[in-house]
Here is the input.
Amino acid sequence: MVTAIKVTKMGVRATAVLLAGTMLSGLGSAAQAQDAPAPPAAQQTAPPPAVTPPVTRTIRTLRVEGTQRLEPDTVLSYTRLRVGQPYTTESLDQAIRDVLASELLADVTIEGVETGDIVLRIRENPVINRVILEGNKRLKNDKIVKEIKLAPRQMFTRTAVRADVARIVELYRRQGRFAASVEPKMVSLDQNRVDIVFEIREGPKSKVRQINIIGNEQFSDGKLRGEMATKQARLTSIFSSNTSYDQDRLAYDQQKLRQFYLTEGYADFRVVSAVAELTPDKKDFIITYVIEEGPRYKFGPVTVDSNIRDFDDATLAKSLAIKEGDWYNAKLVEDTVDSLSETAGAFGYAFANVSPEFQRDREKLTMTLNFNIAEARRTYVERIDITGNTQTQDKVIRREMRLAEGDAFNTFLVKRSQDRINSLGYFDEKFEIEQKEGSAPDRVILTANVEEKSTGELTLSAGFSSLERFIFQGSIRQRNFRGKGQDLRLSADYSSYSKSVELGFTEPYLFDQNVALGGTIFRRDYNSFNYLGTDRRTTYEQVSTGGQIVLGVPLTEYWTLSGRYSLTHDSVSLDESTFFTNGACDPLKAGRYLCEAIGKRWTSAVGLSLIYDSLNSRLRPTAGQRLVVGTDFAGLGGDVKYIRGRFDGDKYWNVGGGFILSAGVEGGYIHSLEGDLAPGVDPVRITDRFFLGEPQFRGFDIRGVGPRIQRIGYTGTVAAGNQTLITDEDQIFDDAIGGRAYYLGKLELEIPLGAGAREMGIRPSIFLMAGANWGVKEPNKTATFTQATDGSGNLLFNADGSPSLLPIQTPQFDSEGRALYAVPLTDSVAPGQLTTCTIGYSSTLGGACSGTSINSRYNIETSPFLENFLGNSPKPRLSVGIGVNWNSPFGPLRLDLAHAFLTQKGDDTKLFTFNVGTAF
Here is the structure.
């Protein structure tokens, strides 16, 4: 029902629901049927009266009244009425119907029927002033407006309104919102104008409440549901976007069921019906599949019939993965077709046609297969076309192609070219090299249609890390500088743990030759630390300044030889106010191993690495492997001499279903060429050793694996005889000192999630890790404490039988090296004053002594402690856990929950780690 509400000049507006259908109104009495009513039944015995012929009159005059925007002739053009022509009641009724069918008018009446002076009194449809959308949140206005037909300054018609309502409802159904409804309203304005308001109630997404399967005997409902893309709405599917109903997905799921059964040997399987029913509340769908499984088949004899002379049919048949007697598998048949096509392509037959021929034996339940390879010509590359690159120069792409124009076609080299171009990271990851027929049957055209993406990176971020606390980062990088594939980068990092600035440049093809040259200059400030309770104590500070030059030369398609030279100046220092006594590093405070690390030194080193790389992508690999074996020699000048070897290998497998399995192993060993520096001193300096822990070894804290020194203090007093070791781990000093050798292995499985989670950049994984760090010489003990004695010289012991240890008294000196003494506290003039006088005191250190006080030597007392050397073992440490990578809106996030279930004494474990705002 339609009600137009008039708007007064005061601007009061009201709305009314538009008609669901068009009503014809205003048909005057002159246009009504004039047939007489039927006589009563009692009078039916009389013969029927004669039929009166319709009265025919002639139109004397004809005009249209009520037009505002339309011309009268336009209205009359839709009728057959003309001056001087006869008319009847029926012809006038038809004229009204014809005019209203034009949808230009809201109402039509005819006057002057009796006189022949015909007047068409009309009321025009209003003009649309605005089209207003209300209630739409999930679909923005621009998405809806471009789909509907009504627009300002157009003529209003009910048909157009109904059509637009249907379009809006369909838009929401495509979004899975089948409960959406649209109520159109019209607001009348002056000058025969209206506002059209679509009030939208979007409703929730219609979920799939239940998936029923009828007819399955060999496989459970849960197994078959797991093969489908559509999932039932459950709490466990909160991250999945496939719980909403989608008609296209319904057809896709039927295909998925067919594929599953065909891979399990059920060649006669069919889906009898698939019905999706909407619940009465329009909130959920119930999907029911009726299937017929049929019998299970095995492969019969498998043969190859090749018309290419280079192939031997019997040899090809033996090499196939399909064997007679195995269960029939349609996927294996498809893979075999692809394998034979690739084999033909590797021999230069680009367009070889491989077609499987099936012979089904329904009695023996076998499927005989013959792969027919049609005759084909050896093909050659006629031309390589590159399109879509607006910034990247053609040569950057062409130099990654493993085929040149005129070469024999080879599918393996085409795939390798595709992987190398994808690994550049300059183009969309869906890039593929297309193959087209050339100007002759033996010619092929390769087309690299690339879609460039941004290669410039500007990062300004702040974050928090369990490793480095607050982090501030800034970097700018162009991976495709000037479109030549050059890499230019500048970065600066600041945290309470480390600070660095680095500038680097790499030219991958020097002078257009396949030689890479790169260089880096850097400044890095690093603070090593340990904890006492929750207080982090900085131990040594290392400042490294230097640079490196790298030269890479490919040996083969996959092997590369890389050489490098680096020059670094290292300065290692300790906080003098904390670890120094009398102007020198105090081993009792810092530990002998840290005092030995202090100093400044130059390191001049050359290195060589052999690299094997067959990864399908260097950014996010899913297949292939990478191995790096390298060695570095330090001693071409400088103060440090050593030889160091390292290896690093990774392999990736796409195990199907979106699961990516990866295995990695790395390790290294360093050997000093300087010989023993001193008894109990390892010749490899602490700054050159290997450290192992967070973040590379999950489940352990930073530097949590490997050799370390633990210093455990005593509680109690000597006099009371109750000295005991501190058992609170937070009160134990723990310093990692690194090892000469290490290894680390990792096995990780990346788990696929739904499309919604993938769009958010969420990638969970489970992992197993094993590693160790060892090989340094045990440091000399920092101190030996004397056992206390009684007045008779007898040794004293604590109540638990352990020896009672005396503190160490360290005499103190002034800045000039003169011994310091303390005036007794009982002195009346200068109690407790430090002086260089043995008797009396002086106003300044080293001044003239006066007074009679007998002073005692001024010492600093170090309480006894136990020092343990732990963790120096090659035995593996093991951890297992789960992790999540997330490209969050506020930066990359890595979360890891790992349990170390195999450790060595002294290792520092950590259950949960996370990093935000820094790369992982």
Remarks:
- Residues 1-45 have pLDDT under 50 and may be disordered.
- The first helix runs from residue 72 to 76.
- The chain is about 15% helix and 40% strand.
